[in-house]
Amino acid sequence: MSTPQTQNAWLATAKGEPSEVLQLDESVPVPKLNCGEVLVKVQATALNPIGYKIMTLFPNFLIKRPYIPEHDLAGIIVDANGTEFQNGDEVFGFIPPQPSLKAHSGTLAQYTRISASHVVRRPINITPTQAAGIPVAALTAYQALFNVAHLKPEQHVFINGGSTSVGAFAIQFAKAIGCNVTVSASGRNEAFVRSLGADGFFDYTTGPLHARLASNPPSSKYHVFFETVGLLDLSLYTHSESYLTPGGTFVSVGAVESKAYEVSYIGKLLWTVFLHPRWLGGTKRTYKMIMVDNKRKDLEIVAQHVRDGKIKPLVDSVFAFENVLKAYERIMTSRATGKVVVRVDPEAE
Ligand SMILES: NC(=O)c1ccc[n+]([C@@H]2O[C@H](COP(=O)([O-])OP(=O)(O)OC[C@H]3O[C@@H](n4cnc5c(N)ncnc54)[C@H](OP(=O)(O)O)[C@@H]3O)[C@@H](O)[C@H]2O)c1
User: Do 6-134+313-343 and 136-289 agree at the fold level?
Assistant: First the structure.
């Protein structure tokens, strides 16, 4: 199968909401490869909050526009370019925000280039549209729990936001090593998080969670508290001495919204979590932030968990390539349960 010179791709043409700035361009050059990169025919991509946050918040000095947005992909290698892969290999992975910003080559396109070290073979027990939603969210969950917070088998973990994509993968990883998992989600998602293995449940809509946890602490305090929503409010951390073990870790995905870039907020965050001395009343618990890292070794581990049936793909909805604006509408409600997927190749399962 020969690769065309040009392709269809969505371009973010200016800073703003997807509905205002995204345009489908039918003559975007298929990218040329650098050493170590492969060309992938994209079967499906999945949206992540960082995609629309970059589009709406990042000024032009941080990202050169127009660019092709998004990061996750499942696809077929059409130019292995002398790497370990063969043409025809079915893979999944993600383009980290940094290189894709510089090179303007995201995954909302029929073809994309990606470092060979950023993809692995797709497990055959899941389809491309299921696989596309795994890399960013599942790696974030895996790395937060195990690389950052060092969660151990049979420990107790609290996941704030068990129905976020990151949280729902985190429940599954923690259950896979026999942990006791308590989560917060809204009542309508209780059945969903319990189906993934959650043992304990709090409905976050019925009152401030930090106050409920502090006034009625668990008999066995949590070893890890994973905040997966991206809350600006730091109350869950500042009250955590009541429900997190002294050696435990509070790990957060970090807030990415316009207020999070204000100097006053950054100052408050730095003071609260890093600078306020414990002997002067600072919170006596460790705070860490996860920044997902495209480590091939971790992606292989995630893929093996999928092959073993320990991690299930989570798909909220699948949109056709032409309906990308509807897909953004869905993810931007912050109400999706699982991944919002875009089927780039109409024939992809
Ligand atoms: N640092 C990193 O490397 C990294 C990587 C990936 C993602 N992230 C961040 O992680 C966050 C989650 O991303 P995602 O893709 O997993 O999100 P998502 O799947 O789009 O999250 C949607 C879910 O969030 C739930 N939710 C909304 N507000 C909530 C609240 N206050 N408490 C509990 N649940 C709430 C909703 O449930 P209800 O409808 O029931 O409320 C819905 O099920 C985002 O802020 C994203 O930017 C960071």
Answer: no
Sign of the alpha-carbon dihedral angle for 218, 224, 228, 231: positive
The reported pLDDT for the residue numbered 249 is: 96
- Three-class DSSP category at 193: helix
C-alpha dist (Å) from residue 348 to 202, 239, 344: 38, 47, 8
- Whether residue 254 has its Cβ less than 6 Å from ligand 1: yes
Q: Which atom of ligand 1 is nearest to the CA of 184?
A: 33
Dihedral sign (CA 22, 28, 33, 34): negative
**What does the alpha-carbon distance between residue 294 and residue 136 come to, in Å, rounded to a whole number?**
9
Helix, strand, coil tally for the chain in percent (to 5): 35, 25, 40
Asked whether residue 244 carries a pLDDT value surpassing 60, the answer given is yes
pLDDT of residue 103: 58
% of the chain beyond a pLDDT of 70: 98
Residue spans of alpha helices (H) in 216-323: 235-238, 263-270, 296-307
**Would you identify the CATH topology of the domain 136-289?**
Rossmann fold (3.40.50)
CA distances from 140 to 28, 105, 276, 298 (A): 31, 22, 27, 10
Point out the ligand 1 atom lying closest to the alpha carbon of residue 140.
Answer: 5
What residue owns the CA closest to ligand 1's atom 25? 164
Whether residue 249 has its Cβ less than 6 Å from ligand 1: no
Q: How many CA atoms lie within 13 A of 318 on its CB side?
A: 19
Q: How many angstroms is it from 37 CA to the middle of ligand 1? A: 31
In the predicted model, is pLDDT for residue 289 greater than 90?
yes
Whether domain 6-134+313-343 has CATH 3.90.180.10: the reply is: yes
Q: Structural domain boundaries of the chain? A: 6-134+313-343, 136-289
Average pLDDT, the chain: 93
Determine the pLDDT at residue 307.
Answer: 97
Instruction: Give the pLDDT score at 138.
Output: 98
